[in-house]
Design brief:
The chain is of the alpha/beta class. The chain has a single domain, classed as Alpha/Beta hydrolase fold, catalytic domain (Rossmann fold). Helix content is about 30%, strand content about 20%. It is built from eight helices and eight strands, in the order βββααβαβαβαβαβαα. The chain is globular, with a radius of gyration of 20 Å.
Length: about 250
C-alpha cells in the first residue's frame, strides 16, 4: 500500500518560475566612420559569448528573439548570447547603396562586437546564409573565436544564377542589406575554401534545405570538425530547441 500523500501547503501547487534572464546589451552600435549603426541585443551572462548570425534576409532579432526565442533562452540561461539585425533591418540603419560582399558584412559584425565591448571568447552560430558569414569571419578574424556552429547550412553553389533567384540581386527591393549573394557569397565560397582553427560543428536538419552529405562540404574547413543530424526542418533550432542548444553549449566549453 502506498503511503498517503502529505497535505498540500500553500506552495505545493505552484509551478516554479525560472529566474528572469537579464538583458545586458540592447543598443544601436556604430559600425563605420559615417555613424551608421546596427542594433544588437544580448541576454544572459557567461563565457564564451554566443553570437547568433541570421539567414537571409537578416532580421536576426526577429529570428532569434521572436520565432527562435525558446532556443535563445536556453542558451542565455548558461551564457551571454547576442543577436543583431544586419544593415537595413529592424532598428539597424540602411545599408550603403552598393553591392556588399563578405568583407563588408564581417566588417560590420566585428565593429558591432567592438562597440558592444565584446572581444571574445566567442562561439559563432550561423543559420542558413548566416553560416557563410560566420565561417568567413572565423577565417578572417580568428582571435577569440572558440568555436563555430552551422545550423542547416547548405553547401554554396558555384552555378546558381539570378535567373533562378532574381530576388537575391543586390539591388532587388527585398534585399535590403544589399548583399551580392550569388557572386560574393555562393560562387566565392564554392570555389575558394577559407579554413579556420576553431572547432566546427555542422548541425543538419533531418528535413532541412539539403542533405547531410551536401552539408558535409563544410567539414574540411576546420581540422576539428564534426557533424550531427537533428530532427526538424530548416529552422531546426525552432523545431528542436533543446537538442540544438545543448549541442551549441558543448562547443567552446572547457
Amino acid at each position: 500500500m502506498l503511503p498517503s500523500a502529505a497535505p498540500p501547503t500553500s506552495n505545493a501547487t505552484r509551478t516554479p518560475t525560472a529566474s528572469p534572464i537579464p538583458t545586458v546589451v540592447d543598443d544601436d552600435l556604430v559600425v563605420d566612420a559615417n555613424g551608421r549603426t546596427l542594433h544588437m541585443t544580448c541576454l544572459g551572462e557567461g563565457a564564451p559569448t554566443i553570437l547568433l548570425e541570421a539567414g537571409h534576409p537578416s532580421a536576426g532579432l526577429q529570428q532569434f528573439l521572436g520565432f527562435g526565442r525558446a532556443f535563445t533562452d536556453l542558451l542565455a540561461r548558461e551564457r551571454r548570447v547576442c543577436a543583431y539585425d544586419r544593415a537595413g533591418y529592424g532598428r539597424s540603419d540602411p545599408a550603403p547603396d552598393e553591392p556588399r560582399d563578405l568583407d563588408d558584412v564581417t566588417d560590420d559584425l566585428r565593429a558591432a562586437l567592438a562597440a558592444a565591448g565584446i572581444d571574445g571568447p566567442l562561439v559563432l552560430v550561423g543559420s542558413s546564409f548566416g553560416g557563410m558569414v560566420v565561417t568567413y569571419y572565423a577565417n578572417r578574424f580568428p582571435a577569440g573565436v572558440e568555436g563555430v556552429v552551422l545550423l542547416d547550412v547548405p553547401a554554396p553553389s558555384a552555378t546558381l544564377s539570378l535567373q533562378e533567384l532574381p530576388e537575391v540581386a543586390w539591388d532587388h527591393p527585398s534585399n535590403r542589406e544589399h548583399v551580392d549573394v550569388i557572386p560574393e557569397f555562393e560562387h566565392r565560397l564554392a570555389k575558394e575554401r577559407f579554413p579556420f582553427e576553431a572547432p566546427l560543428l555542422v548541425i543538419t536538419a533531418t528535413n532541412g534545405q539539403s542533405t547531410i552529405e551536401d552539408q558535409a562540404f563544410w567539414l574540411d574547413w576546420s581540422a576539428t570538425s564534426s557533424q550531427i543530424e537533428v530532427e526538424g526542418g530548416h529552422s531546426v533550432y525552432e523545431d528542436s530547441p533543446q537538442s540544438v542548444s545543448a549541442a551549441v553549449l558543448e562547443v567552446g566549453s572547457p
